Amino acid sequence: MRAAPLDVARRTAPWLWGALVAAWVCDVFFRLAPGEMPYNHETYGYVHRIVEFQDLLRAGYLFPHWAVDFRGGLGSPYFGYYQPGFFYLASLFAFVLPMPAALATTLWSLTLAGYGGVLALVRARFGVVAGMFAGTAFLLAPYVHTELTWRGDFSEAMGMMLLPATMHWLTAWLDGGGRGYWRALAAGAAGSIVSHPVAGLFGYGALVVVTACWVAMGCDRRRAAAALGALGVGVGLAAFYLVPIALDWHLVQGDLLTKHLSEQPLQFVELRELFAPRARSSRWPVPVALGLPAMLLAALAVATAAWRWQRRTPAQRRFVVAMLVLASGTVWLLHPSSRVLWEAVPLLRMAQFPWRALFVLTPVLAIVGGCLVEGRRTLAAIGLVLYAASTYAYGPAPVRHWWPHPADARAIASGFVAPDAANEWLPKGAMLMKGPTLRTAPTCAGICRVEDFERTTARLQARITTAGRAEVVLPHYYFPVGWTATLDGVEVPLERTAEGLMRVVVEKSGRLDVRFGTTPARRLGVTVSAAVLGLLVLGAVMRRRRASRTAAGLLALVVFCTGTIGCRSVTYLARGGLAEARILWRRQPIADLLARSDLDRDLRERLALVLQVRTFAAEGLGLDVGESFTTFADVDGDAVVWVVSAAHRDRLEPYTWWYPVVGRVPYQGYFERAEAEDAARRLAAQGLDVDVRAASAFSTLGWFSDPLLSTTARTAPVALAETVIHELFHATLYVPSAVEFNESAATFVGHRGAMAFFCDGPGRDTARCGESQARWRRVRAHARLLERYVRRVRALYAANLPEPARERVRARLAEHAARAVRRRGLGAPDELSPPNNARLLAMLAYETDLAAFERLAPAAATLPTAIERIVGAARGARDPFAAVCALD
């Protein structure tokens, strides 16, 4: 019994040590007061970027692009081109911590990740002591302090910290395979790209060199080819960042960066500078020396490896050779003798400074040093003392107090923050404005007035008062993609002034609303990334037949991403996913609730009924119930989802949204009513009929184990049984892009299934049997009335009457149908009058051609066979209604 705690201690001790070392390395950041930052190259740049990035995330921009507050409020497409990895991580911490603590915690997490990567890489071949030594030596290396304090380039530091872990996954895959290592390699490669482009460039180069060394020393070439394939997948995962750079670079003044690079001399490092006793003796503005201890330990490790070469295993030999080749190649890239390569490869020239190759050399030397201390604790302690002395000699950058951290993103606009040093991310044709030339207020040419100008996240608003045609110039840079302007909901053209600012021509007074959504290149990039991620998850799920429903649900979410990449659509997806996650988190097993003595009597009855119904649906009707409706989730309000639909006013044609899995559907669901109404207003502004309706239940089509929601449990027993069977049928059969068939078939199965349950099944009850039969008769009668009404409406639209006449006739038809509904007791009259094509089509979707289904099951005993025939005929059919009719 005592062995288990000892084993846990041994496993956790290396990580506890790493956490302490990482805290010591980041100590200066934990001690920062508001307004303080190390005096470095970036100064307050990263704080401003985190605040702006966090503001965009909070507003629902999951892939931030345009920062409205940079450049004194003139804006910049900064996040469309600047690496986002660090800002995603830092923003998560900034949501719950003050900015200094969030920044320190982010850097601590990254340095711990760097330690862990080196630990895993070395421990697998030379033991835990060697791994701990190498990981510690890495964090104590002078260039780590250079990145964190002297340069302050946290994004590049993140890339350097991710490299060892990615290299561990690569070598683990090359040595023994394992799909988990392959997928981790792809993710790590993508992480290096989105953390920093130089990290991606040098990191990919290092990974390719290691792979080549493994092949040269007898590694399976097919496995090596698969490793290169994983690197390609990493590029695909990072497409949301890379594609906008590739396709939209011409929309900004990127030539300024190219010119800046071409005019800047290559900053090579002589070998003697790497051995400098103090880093600040370097000719360059940042410390670049490795220090004598690091070089000495690496030389001893090489000598030891040569001396004990015959005792090394093949895996150890491959590892040592690969690290030495990588170290030698990196040192050569630092030296002036590599000038010919730098000048011949334009992509390499984008790295700007040859001394950035220390990004790779620093962890590699620490790894090589770790090989020396294999199992030798005393030698490891001596080495760490030397490393610590080396680090102390270089010293951290001094801390300076600049100005208070910005309270929010709007505070950034009150100053002038230009995070692109060469102004390379100014929009094409825009003039550099700062100081006295900076525009801060809108102007209006003509007899007009601009009031209530407001700048919020990716949005500009103002009230325009004019007696006629007027030109309004906004104090914000124009960008040709992503931005749209509307006046009282009607889109108006957005143009560029000679200075590069936004100009809007208006014909009347109104509320001007200018918004940024996303660019086509960003949409394409996110689509590619989501598709690649979806394929990875699909492969994992298909190889593990017993994968959990949550994993399958993740696949569904990823695939949905490929079809919902617009900014608002991504926001819709993210918020919906979080709401669904909250619902799933609240699930409680129904069996556990029924065991409670204090459970409400009505709820107890409903819960017991649901368990009976789902058992009947599986055994009596042949539906795929999975684990759905075995749990209960208490949710707020009377509705869990608000469904938004829209349709054209001059024809019975719905407005649709397309998704890869479910196809084209004529509605979107929102978990917040305000969001649904906001979406409805945007659709109404396009001249569409719009409908917003509440729903007490929904189905995830079997991807998740759907719980019984408290909103559903409040319904009467017969309606509850109908709803449960209805949703279980969706989990059994779903035909993409066939909403009318899916819902109408589920209506048939839900009502007839409830009748079978209460009339002849385990829930036999005379009163409820009669109620279920009456409800089905009302649904059939309502469907027949709708069919007659729809035929008249279609005939009206086919007549091509002028709009005033068409609207009068449409209103008369709607009133006539509403009176019929009221007279026959089939529903509320306001369902049909005033006329609304979106509401009409939404009702019709649940009641189309119900007679075709009814004919397949004239008696209760034939219902299971009819369901089986419907599922078999419709699955994979181009026209499921025709396939079902052919069965009759």
Give your account of this protein's structure.
It contains 36 helices and 20 strands. It has 888 residues and is of the alpha+beta class. A 5-stranded antiparallel beta sheet has the order 4-5-11-7-8, with no helix packed on it. β16 and β17 (663-665) form a beta hairpin. α1 (3-25) packs across α5, α4 packs across α5 and α29 packs across α30 (739-759). Mean pLDDT is 82; it is low at 544-575.
Notable traits:
alpha+beta; 888 residues; 4-stranded antiparallel beta sheet; 5-stranded antiparallel beta sheet; single chain; globular
Structure summarized in a few sentences:
The protein is α+β, with helices and mostly antiparallel strands and 888 residues long. The chain is built from 36 helices and 20 strands. Strands 4-5-11-7-8 form a 5-stranded antiparallel beta sheet, with no helix packed on it. A 4-stranded antiparallel beta sheet has the order 3-6-10-9, with no helix packed on it. Strands 14, 15, 18 and 19 form a 4-stranded antiparallel beta sheet that branches.
Helix-strand blueprint:
Layout: H1 3-25, H2 27-30, E1 36-38, H3 45-58, H4 85-94, H5 99-126, H6 128-140, H7 142-151, H8 154-176, H9 179-195, H10 197-216, H11 221-237, H12 239-248, H13 255-263, H14 271-274, H15 292-307, H16 314-334, H17 339-344, H18 346-349, H19 358-372, H20 377-394, E2 399-401, H21 409-413, E3 443-445, E4 448-456, E5 459-466, E6 470-477, E7 483-487, E8 490-492, E9 494-496, E10 501-506, E11 510-516, H22 520-543, H23 549-561, H24 567-585, E12 588-589, H25 590-594, H26 601-619, E13 631-633, E14 641-647, E15 654-655, E16 657-659, E17 663-665, E18 668-670, H27 673-684, E19 689-695, E20 708-709, H28 710-713, H29 717-732, H30 739-759, H31 766-798, H32 803-823, H33 837-845, H34 850-856, H35 863-874, H36 880-885
Parallel strand pairs: 13-20
Antiparallel strand pairs: 1-2, 3-6, 4-5, 5-11, 6-10, 7-8, 7-11, 9-10, 12-13, 14-15, 14-18, 14-19, 16-17
